[in-house]
């Protein structure tokens, strides 16, 4: 399974248009300030969730997730969206996105059609927590954008279903033009089957035939990049034995120069420091949940100079001190 999502660069533009400070969002999410200036913006599931949690914290608009997905200009659509609009209807568009999504990111787009309804939901395969509310809203509103842009009609969902309670139900209903229910078994957006089968005025089989080989090639590229990043991560973890392995040590273990290692990581949208942090984070969670190590012992094994440094790093990863995380994890496991 691939481990990274590719974030669309246009998200930063939309945030700025809606008055949300991008630097503040990145700071609260613990992500690099140059994230949206990178050629390929790749993030893990935890980083993606942190990004959307930060957007919710920085923005004062409870409907920001829905508004970020609204787009009327075709030229600003992601290539995947343009390809989806080139199919014959919403059902075909969702099937197309589902095929390529599960092969390029740790996410599945699930869909089911009956005589009366067409439902769409999203599954985050590498998640260890519930997905951010704003991210769910964004995914739902993006489906509405595809439906309306493709059909050229003001298509509205039949209803949206949320697992968790929502404080802005009425405002959401007004914006999406449909019923909102909470306490559902899954987060889902449901269209009328007849609306889902409406022909797309944007259908373009020639463009779809042109884009399909590029998507297939991109999938191969993503797999290769993720495999290399995972290789580097494992090499780092193998050498996290009381010291912080340098890029030179890891590069030598992989039989390449440090410059080549850094270049290949940058091509994959990452960096050595980022992979090192990910490796430490993974091992920290493992040590705290699967061993009786004291916190200072875990800090030593992870290559931190002292427990305080480890505590600061862990708080930036999980939002809580390592001791609190361990107790909460043990309590949930016992329960």
Short synopsis of the structure:
The chain has 335 residues and is of the alpha+beta class. It folds into two domains: 5-203, H-NOX domain, CATH 3.90.1520; 207-334, Homeodomain-like (Arc Repressor Mutant, subunit A), CATH 1.10.10.60. The chain is built from 16 helices and seven strands.
CATH topology of the largest domain: H-NOX domain
Report helical residue fraction: 55-70%
Largest β-sheet summary:
5 strands, mixed
Percent of residues in β-strands: 5-15%
What does this structure look like?
Keywords: DNA-binding, Transcription, Transcription regulation. InterPro entries: AraC-type_N, Homeodomain-like_sf, HTH_AraC. It comes from Terriglobus albidus. GO terms for molecular function: DNA-binding transcription factor activity; transcription cis-regulatory region binding. The protein is of the alpha+beta class. The chain has helices at residues 10-17, 22-29, 45-58, 64-68, 79-85, 90-104, 133-151, 169-176, 193-196, 205-238, 247-253, 258-267, 272-290, 295-301, 307-318, 322-334, and strands spanning 5-6, 42-43, 107-113, 117-124, 159-161, 179-181, 188-192. The protein folds into two domains: 5-203, H-NOX domain; 207-334, Homeodomain-like (Arc Repressor Mutant, subunit A). It has 16 helices and seven strands. The strands form two sheets. A five-stranded mixed β-sheet has the order 3-4-7-5-6. The mean pLDDT is 87.
